[in-house]
Specification:
Blueprint: E1 9-12, E2 17-23, E3 34-44, E4 52-60, E5 63-70, E6 75-85, E7 90-99
Parallel strand pairs: 1-7
Antiparallel strand pairs: 2-5, 3-6, 4-5, 6-7
């Protein structure tokens, strides 16, 4: 049985470029690894077009790493990561990011 948890709402300011990661270990066997990042996309909640910049992506075992910058103040975004694993599984993870100039 797979264990998943509720998405955590992360926060950044519009001018910041910050490091984020998405951990897939709860969806994978202990000896399974990520072999490719198929896509990383974002959209504003409600389906509007995103102006987030996602770069500096990489793989670290069962985790996808990335830097996220830009965004519109007082907007919430959904970031979606799709990967392929060493067991040929294609998995998808989602996270929420709020942009706020605290």
């Amino acid at each position: 049985m797979l264990n998943t948890s509720a998405p955590q709402l992360l926060v950044k300011a519009p001018a910041e470029r910050r490091y984020y990661s998405m951990d897939f270990s709860a969806l994978m066997d202990s000896d399974e690894t990520i072999i490719s990042i198929n896509s990383i996309t974002s959209e504003k909640r409600g389906g509007d077009i995103s102006n987030l910049l996602i770069d500096g992506t990489g793989i670290n075992g069962q985790t996808v790493e990335m830097y996220i910058s830009s965004g519109t103040d007082y907007s919430t975004y959904r970031v979606e990561v799709q990967i392929t694993t060493s067991d040929s599984n294609i998995l998808q993870g989602d996270g929420l990011l709020k942009v706020s100039d605290k």
